[in-house]
Amino acid sequence: MKRIGILTGGGDAPGLNAVIRAAVKTAINMYDCEVFGIRNGYDGFLELDGIVPLGMEEVRGILPRGGTILGAANRGNPYARKVMRDGVEITIDVSEEIVKGIKKLKLEALIVLGGDGTLHIAHELALKGVPIIGVPKTIDNDIGGTEITFGFDTALNIATEAIDRLHTTAESHHRAMVLELMGRDAGFIALQAGICGGADVILIPEIPFKFESIMAKIRERAEKGRKFSILAVSEGAKSQDGVQVFSREGDDIYVPRLGGIGQVVGEYIEKQGFESRVTVLGHLQRGGTPTAFDRSLATRFGAAAVRLAARSGFDRMVALQSGRVTDISLVDATAIPKRVKLEDDSVITARNVGISFGDE
Ligand code: F6P
Fold first, then answer.
1. What is the DSSP string of 259-321?
2. Ligand 1: distance of its center to the CA of 282 in Å?
3. Is pLDDT at 253 greater than 90 in this prediction?
């Protein structure tokens, strides 16, 4: 193995740079291999300055840095790339150009760091003969086949700190504080942050809620003299007779953008006579330095991806299972997205300690 490429696709997540660093160091130290970074996801293969050599010098000091030194691209689907032709925006398939770019660079492996979408594309490219290795990344923790993705722990810590901060002001002002958290259709961030921050109500997409159940919890607390409440609300949560709330519609490039359910819940609480405030934590969950856990997992994933490439384990993804780094096929990894299950120990535990999911 003499030349490998590495790219970061989709949204960023804390730990991407730690993976890049570990992959470059492992490739050079263990295999005396050249590494090329592809800028802005798959787009780098189509851009003039889209390919950059990555050596020890380029990865020095990036372990604690958030974001990605390679840049990411949410619109980077090579099977549906938007371009302007004669003043009109059209969608074209540039996957063959990507394959040619990989061949031209003589890459013997392409390590792709990404979430669901990027990994799906990775598998499609593998079917075209591209020697692809996947590395699962997302703060949402919704990728199948791996217990956890890097980025999640950092997002969870930020969300937990936010709940801690809301607690003190909620208590002072006797308010119901609603915190809307990311996660798309998976409720892992809200569930764990709610448990870690001692929320009273957790609303997640996997457990549709009833507005009246939320109020029952808030009233029950008020009757016991606890005149404030904390609600951790996943952006994908929805009521039993309602639908998810979006701040922007989707199109053939962008998935619909979730957002607004926190406001809906907060307004309902106010209408019931309880003062409420809504905080949307947003991209603070994705930015900044990764936690020690994420740095460790990202480093293990980066090194493992290069070892997997060296033994030609293509069309596969590194994964954490039972605490050990292993690998699984990209087909299996992307077949069923991971979701919170009602029977998960964390859900049962949350109920045991008196947290309401708004469903009873
Ligand atoms: O998938 C990661 C994530 O942060 C989601 O939790 C969130 O819904 C989405 O990306 C936000 O995407 P964007 O960066 O395009 O606003």
1. --HHHHHHHHHHHTT--EEEEE-GGGGTSSPPPHHHHHHHHHHHHHHHHHHHTT-TTEEEEEE
2. 8
3. no
